[in-house]
Each structure stands twice: as structure tokens, then as C-alpha cells.
Amino acid sequence: MAPMIDMVFLLLVFFMTVSTLAREARPELDLALSRTARVPEEAPPRDILTVLRDDTGSRIYWRNRQVELDQLETLLRESARNPDSQLLLRGGPELPWSEWQRILALVREAGIRDLVFATFEE
Amino acid sequence: MSLRRQFLDTPEIPIAPMIDCVFLMLVYFMTTSSLEKSEADLPFPAGRPGLASDPLPQIDEQRLAIDAAGTVLWNGSRFDMLDGSGLSPLRQRLAAFEQTCRSAGSEASLQILPDRDAPHQALVSTLDAVSLTGIEQVHLP
User: Fold this and answer.
1) Are residues B40 and A21, on separate chains, in Cβ contact within 8 Å?
2) pLDDT tens digits, residue range B24-63?
């Protein structure tokens, strides 16, 4: 009996340490692969913008909430009020540049300069 | 008699409820945990607005185009960034460019011009190649 309890405790400790319960809200997405990108040890406070694209078109998410372009403009202006704000841009490997272009036009207009692409380490 | 009494009086820790509890916690963490990959940060070369006090750098700017197939076109050469075969040759050419600029006393600068249908993976791979050569002046439209 005792070895089994030991094993269960070990499993419990394993799952408690590897699980991430307080993850920032964001839609699930397969990201592009990068050789130089690194997982930040301590990410600064930041807003997360995700672009999902499928056969029906593209959808923009601010954190976990779907937004339209005019709403995004307002959100970006609010975000830009904090000079330390960073914006994390998430898109799939197939996402065409034109999708980023129309979003980046709003981002630049809002005055956000600290931008980061989310990728997976290759 | 005394031995039996001693055995009966020994306090016992009920272990079964504890095992039940540990099993419950194990099942909880197994079902709620996510072992998905962590996301990595790739800085985006957004640049900053120029200031009047900035010194005028001697810049030799080169333009890299990315077409809709994910191929980088630079000075007549093609580098396929989607299958990964173009990353190493592009890195070598960029390193040579950076070296040339440095020996000439100027700062290497690149402008990346993706096609409107250029896939995001090609842009990320191009930024990888640029980052590996240490060129810091990178601009996107």
C-alpha cells in the first residue's frame, strides 16, 4: 500500500507544479515557429491581440473577447495611455500580411510602440 | 490481556480518507492542467518616431521583399523561408552585408516589404535571420 501512496503523491506534486491555472485569457491558436524568440521569464503587463482566420474570414480578439475594428481602435487608445504598455500580437503561420497591416495602422495611430509577436520556440 | 488492551489503545491515523482526498486532488490537477507549449516573444521592429536631437546616421538601407509564397527576394536572390531552406543562406548574406556596413563605418539597415498575401511564418523566419545577424535597424511598412 505504501509504495502506491508514494506514487500517487509524486503524481500529485508533478501535476501541481506543471499545471498553469492562472493563465492570461487568450484564444487557442497554433503560432508561427521562431528560432530566436524566447519565453519571457517574467512578462511585463500587456494587452493581447489575437487574429484568427478561417474560411469564413478573420476575427480579432482583445484578450478573450471578439471585437470589431472600431472597438479595437478605442481599446488601443486606452491601452496607449499607459506608456509602459506592451502589445502582444498573436497570429497563425498562414495569416497574410494584409491582416497585420490594417491592425498595425490602428496600433501606430494609437501610439503604441512596444510590440511583440507571439511564437512557439522551434 | 494486557497486550490486547495495549493494542486496542494505540491511536491510529485513519489513512483511507487521506488517500481518497489525495486521489481527488490528483484527478483535479490531471483534468485542469494544460501541458501546452509556452509562447515565446519575438520583438516587432516598430521603431520609434525620430527626434530632432537624433544624430543623422549614415545608413545603407537594403530592401527585402517577401512574396505571397513566403520567398524572400533580395538583390536578385531568392530565399525560401517556409520550408526553412532559405534561413541559413539569408543569414549568411545578411551577415556579410552587416560586416560590409560596419567596415564602411555605417549602420546596416533593412526594410522588410511583405506582399499583402505573404504568410506570417515567412515574416517571422525573416525576422529570425535578421536577429541572428545582429542588425538592429529594421523597418516594416
Assistant:
1) no
2) 888 888 777 666 677 888 888 765 554 555 555 556 678 8
Residue B132 and residue B7: Cα distance in Å, rounded? 73
Report CB contact under 8 Å: B25, A121.
no
Of residues A8, A19, A92, nearest to B34 (C-beta)? A19
Residue B138 bridge partners (DSSP) = B110
Q: Locate cell 480579432: which residue?
A: A60
pLDDT tens track for A47-59: 999 999 888 888 9
**Which among A19, A43, A108 has CB closest to B33?**
A19
**Domain B59-139 belongs to what topology?**
Nucleotidyltransferase; domain 5 (3.30.420)
User: Is A1 buried (19+), middle (13-18) or exposed (0-12) by CB count in 10 A?
Assistant: exposed
Give 3-state DSSP helix, strand, coil % of chain B, rounded to 5. 40, 25, 40
CB-CB contact of B121 with B71 (8 Å): no
> 3-state DSSP call for residue B38?
coil
Residue A101: which of B25, B39, B116 has the nearest Cβ? B116
| pTM exceeds 0.80 for this model | no
Residue A40 to residue B30, Cβ atoms within 8 A: no
Mapped onto helix, strand or coil, the DSSP state of residue A95 is coil
Q: Which residues lie below 8 Å from residue B119, measured CB to CB, with a gap of 6+?
A: A93, A94, A95, A96, A97, B68, B70, B82
**Which uninterrupted H or E stretch holds B118?**
none
